[in-house]
Design a protein that fits this description.
Elements: E1 5-6, E2 19-25, H1 32-42, E3 46-51, H2 58-63, E4 68-72, E5 79-81, E6 84-86, H3 89-94, E7 103-108, E8 111-114, H4 123-133, E9 137-144, E10 168-170, H5 179-184, E11 193-199, E12 205-207, E13 212-214, E14 218-228, H6 235-245, H7 249-263, E15 275-277, H8 281-286
Parallel strand pairs: 2-3, 2-7, 3-4, 9-14
Antiparallel strand pairs: 1-4, 5-6, 7-11, 8-14, 9-11, 10-15, 12-13
Length: 291
């Protein structure tokens, strides 16, 4: 079990009607207000945040949020469990005792969960449909968002609309032709499959950075998305820090490759022939990305 240091004093209500969200973060103060605004707007009631020793203003922001519970740990982001490596999802699994019977969203702190009609339809209406059809999980695609301009010029300031800065994504979505793979000239496939929504139970287990989920009946009638807002102008600084920490896959070898690419080309942009400008959820449905 992880040695958590509980930082908040907010009462954790056990109300199965609440939509709960699990997220891990480290030094993501700039995007956190937009992250909370988006997920509150779609209907999240309660946030469970695992902080991996943030040193910026992330904790100060979190402590001011209602219905938010902060569990801090200095444990590595990725560890070996038997023959397998597991990411921060193991922390969320340890906190499931607080959300038994609740529908839960699980995302990284630079990811926004979306679904068909999310602009106008609350997530509680979505889970009502899932309950009625007997499903306890939902699949989604990871969608990397980026700017048309060089990464160094994709400046995002706290409080701004992130959709105004990172407006583009690759289409078709292809695990062998992802913007990160294009940047590195890498032929190895990348996992775009996510399971961002599930009904918490004693059998439900989040796996592999929420690329997998076990003990759930996954819906075949709905499919959502996870918009990934990573590639702003401070991305190179992030790569430098996390390459040195070496806590991600392969001791952060992918981040080291990306750092080499961006450091060697200050004008690098992810924008290319495969780029489409994001409009709304209806667009993603028409493209066959979401259902």
């Amino acid at each position: 079990m992880t040695d958590f240091n509980r930082l908040d004093k907010n009462k954790i209500l056990k109300d199965p009607s609440e939509i709960c969200l699990f997220v891990a973060t480290r030094n993501n103060e700039t995007l956190m207000p937009a992250f909370f605004e988006h997920h509150r707007k779609i209907g999240v009631d309660r946030f469970f945040v695992i902080d991996n020793m943030s040193s910026d203003g992330t904790i100060d922001f979190l402590l001011k949020q209602e219905n938010t519970h902060i569990f801090q740990t200095n444990a590595p982001y990725r560890v070996k469990q038997g023959k397998r490596s597991v990411n921060w999802n193991r922390w969320a699994n340890e906190l499931r005792e607080y959300t038994m019977g609740n529908w839960c969203i699980v995302v990284d702190s630079d990811e926004f969960f979306i679904y068909t009609g999310y602009e106008d339809i609350g997530v509680k209406e979505l889970v009502k449909h899932l309950d009625e059809e007997g499903s306890t999980g939902m699949r989604g695609y990871l969608i990397d968002m980026y700017s048309k301009c060089p990464v160094k010029d994709a400046i995002y300031k706290k409080g701004e609309n992130i959709f105004d800065v990172l407006q583009y994504f690759d289409f078709p979505l292809d695990r062998k032709h992802n913007p990160r793979l294009r940047a590195m000239g890498n032929k190895k496939a990348i996992r775009l499959n996510k399971y961002p929504l599930f009904k918490c139970s004693k059998t439900s287990v989040i796996g592999a950075g929420h690329h997998d989920i076990y003990g759930c009946k996954v819906s075949s009638t709905v499919r959502g998305g996870v918009l990934h807002f990573k590639f702003t102008s401070d991305y190179v600084d992030h790569l430098k820090v996390e390459s040195a920490r070496g806590v991600y896959y392969g001791k952060s070898k992918i981040k080291r490759r990306m750092l080499k690419k961006l450091s060697g080309n200050g004008e690098f942009s992810f924008y290319g022939d495969m780029s489409l400008k994001y409009i709304n959820s209806e667009q993603l449905v028409e493209l066959g990305i979401m259902i």
